[in-house]
Amino acid sequence: MRCLLLLVFLSLTGVSTFSQSDTMVIELGSTVRKFLISEISQITFSGISTGTGEEELAKINEILNSFTLHQNYPNPFNPLTNIAYRIPERGNVEIRIYDVQGELTKEILSKEQDAGEYTVTWDGKNKEGSVVTSGVYFYQVQFNNSLITKKMIHIK
Questions:
Q1: CATH topology for 68-154?
Q2: DSSP letters along 52-90, please?
Q3: Residue 26, class by beta-carbon neighbours within 10 Å (0-12 exposed, 13-18 middle, 19+ buried)?
Q4: I want to staple 38 with a disulfide (CB 3.0 to 4.6 A). Which of 71, 87, 117, 131 is the partner?
Q5: Could you give the CA distance from residue 69 to residue 81 in angstroms, rounded to a whole number?
Q6: pTM of full prediction above 0.85
Q7: C-alpha–C-alpha distance, residues 131 and 77, integer Å
């Protein structure tokens, strides 16, 4: 039985950016199944003719198993923003917000999490519970020994 594998990626660039609407569609005869990329933990291609070269398969595998930090949304924001990220395996995750002077504004999360896609919301408040001033802030996600930082803008 011939199996056709079709990967649907909304954006496949040098930096992987995914949303929860990214799906993998598999057709087997007359049966069609869709899977969220964030729910897939392993893909095995043994014995299946995919028409996809080894280089493409390696790139797909790297993307599916990478630590990724998405741009916050909305951005600019007031009063709330969402920070989405993906971790490839169970590990320690820490999320911190910094101002432009590099001072810690707030620690959003510090805990061990299973592999998967997550979203946290920042309410625009500092560690004392006061709403921060308008300006540029940096959010930083640390997963085990990897660290990614991105910029966001708070407006009033």
A1: Immunoglobulin-like (2.60.40)
A2: --HHHHHHHHHHHTS-EEPPPBSSSBSS-EEEEEEESSS
A3: middle
A4: 117
A5: 14
A6: no
A7: 12
What burial class does residue 53 get, using C-beta atoms within 10 Å of its C-beta: 0-12 exposed, 13-18 middle, 19+ buried?
Answer: exposed
- The domain locations on the chain are 3-64, 68-154
Cα distance between residue 109 and residue 116, in whole Å: 16
Highest mean pLDDT among 25-29, 31-35, 119-123: 119-123
Place of tokens 């056709």: 4
In one-letter notation, the amino acid at residue 39 is E
CA nearest to 71, candidates 85, 87, 90, 55: 85
Contacts of 76 (CB under 8 A, 6+ apart): 152, 153, 154, 155
pLDDT beyond 90 at 129: yes
In sequence order, the β-bridge partners of residue 69 are: 85
What lies within 8 Å, CB to CB, of 35 at 6+ separation is 23, 24, 26
Q: Which residues lie closer than 8 Å to 144 by C-beta, 6 or more apart?
A: 91, 92
